[in-house]
Write a structure and sequence with these properties.
The protein has about 450 residues and is α+β, with helices and mostly antiparallel strands. It has 14 helices and 15 strands. The protein has two domains: about 100 residues, Glutamine synthetase, N-terminal domain (Ubiquitin-like (UB roll), Roll), CATH 3.10.20.70; about 325 residues, Glutamine synthetase/guanido kinase, catalytic domain (Creatine Kinase, Chain A, domain 2). Strands 7, 8, 9, 10, 11, 12, 13, 14 and 15 form a nine-stranded mixed β-sheet that branches. Strands 1, 2, 3, 4, 5 and 6 form a six-stranded mixed β-sheet that branches. Strand 5 and strand 6 form a beta hairpin. Helix 4 crosses helix 5 and helix 12 crosses helix 13.
């Protein structure tokens, strides 16, 4: 498929009567930020980019600049849009959006650019003969806040058609808005908690999958505002309710997308087993990137169907890595793995880059995979845990950050961004450590 040209994008903007075009990116705290240009300056801005102070990537969830990163008021990069991410925004009148790469003033990629970090892993995989198909699977909660009280739009049961009926107006608009942006919807159903819902989208190549996760989050919030609702995609909006995951599904293929490298008659190939072993080997550090908020660790608890241990299993929803059942007649095409310890407080580019890097490390080293777990791992005794090489995942973000800082594979992948990320996230740990629970929950609920 031919890539869009600058002139084609400008023409599309003019035909759609677009007034403002957003140049957006996802920062170190997974906040989606950006700047806008008027359409009459769009061609110029596409070619020259829009300036951004480097200190933006050192801001934490509370917009507090972490000066110890070396990033601050001096130094500038350019937001350079990827024209393939052009989208007219159905929920924002006369507005469109482009997702951006970050470039230094010498036109080279900035080492803090999340998209470029993912591109580097994808390029390495391609050089080894591998490609991937990926989809993020977010859960979210819908309701309103009035006079300090939260009111969910429904209190239906899991998978209940009553929940479908009560959310139908919003969901139909959400589906329509996603598909108008070229994002294909796969499944939808009400989830376990009050007004908790899950709507999954189709798998695609890694970079595009992350771009879709950005637009998913943007569209969810935008459509919710249209309906005077608050959409919460945070891991744990309420401490006494089920958490919101963002399970990551992926499969590995040859570079021609003809052969699924995970598939085998017995359920998972040797390649797939090495890949999963790599993920499990690095998982205590990896969760600092896939579950990177203080709030995340209210969700990552035993017996919560969110995974709290370094184990895997076939159709085991308490395992960190689940191998789902395949569809009849599509066994090779539908073989994939699901990483459950992922949530929407992650920067999708960084999280996916890290998952792929860990999996590839397992493949390169032919890491052995322990036997699959067929029960809830929290039921094992301490001796059984040791025998099965199962470990409890970090119970706090601070613990996960310590694991990350000591992980050579991941710190090499992240480069200078890794140090900034750890500083930003450590500051968030400190900011919420002495605060009451409600302050933490309220500062996460609608941030993502």
């Amino acid at each position: 498929m031919a890539q869009k040209s600058v002139d084609e994008i400008v023409t599309l903007a003019q035909k759609s009567a677009i007034s403002l075009v957003r140049f957006i990116f996802c920062d170190s705290a997974s906040i989606i930020r950006g700047k806008c240009t008027r359409t009459d300056k769009l061609k110029e801005r596409i070619e020259s980019g829009i300036g951004l102070v480097k200190g933006t990537m050192a801001m934490n969830l509370l917009d507090q600049l972490q000066a110890d990163t070396g990033l601050g008021a001096t130094g500038e990069i350019r937001l350079i849009p990827d024209l393939e991410t052009w989208a007219v925004l159905p929920y924002a009148e006369r507005s469109a959006s482009l997702i951006c790469d970050m470039q230094e003033l010498n036109h080279k990629p900035w080492d803090h650019c999340p998209r470029n970090i993912l591109k580097s892993v994808v390029a390495e995989a391609k050089s080894l003969g591998y490609s991937f198909q990926v989809s993020f699977e977010p859960e979210f909660t819908l309701g309103t806040f009035a006079d300090g009280e939260y009111k969910p739009i429904d209190r239906s049961l899991c998978f209940s058609t009553d929940g479908m009926n009560r959310a139908a107006k919003f969901i139909n608009r959400f589906v329509d808005s996603l598909e108008r942006q070229g994002i294909e919807v796969e499944q939808y159903y009400p989830e376990l908690g009050p007004a908790q819902h899950e709507l999954s989208i189709r798998h695609t190549a890694p970079l595009k999958a992350c771009d879709r996760q950005i637009y998913y989050r943007e569209t969810l919030r935008g459509v919710a505002l249209e309906h005077d609702l608050d959409a919460m995609i945070a891991p744990k909006p309420f401490d006494d309710q089920p958490g919101n995951g963002c399970h990551l599904h992926l499969s590995a293929w040859d570079v021609y997308q003809e052969r699924n490298l995970f598939w085998a008659e017995n359920g998972l190939s040797d390649f797939g087993r090495f890949f999963v072993a790599g993920i499990l080997n690095h998982l205590p550090a990896l969760v600092a990137l896939t579950c990177p908020s203080v709030n995340s660790y209210r969700r990552l608890r035993p017996r919560s169907w969110s995974s709290a241990y370094t184990c895997w299993g076939f159709e085991n929803r308490e395992a960190a890595v689940r191998v789902p059942s395949v569809y009849w007649g599509q066994e090779m095409a539908t073989t994939n793995i699901e990483l459950k310890c992922v949530d929407s407080s992650c920067n999708p580019y960084i999280a996916l880059a890290a998952v792929l890097a860990c999996g590839l490390d397992g493949v390169k080293r032919h890491l052995p995979l322990p036997p699959p777990v067929e029960v809830d791992p929290s039921t094992f005794s301490a001796d059984e845990m040791i025998d099965r090489k199962i470990h409890r995942l970090p119970s706090t973000l601070q613990e996960a950050l310590i694991e990350l800082e000591e992980n050579e594979i991941l710190m090499k992948l992240l480069g200078n961004f890794g140090n900034t990320f750890i500083a930003v996230k450590t500051s968030e740990c400190g900011a919420f450590a002495g605060a009451n629970t409600e302050f933490e929950l309220s500062q996460h609920r609608t941030r993502f």
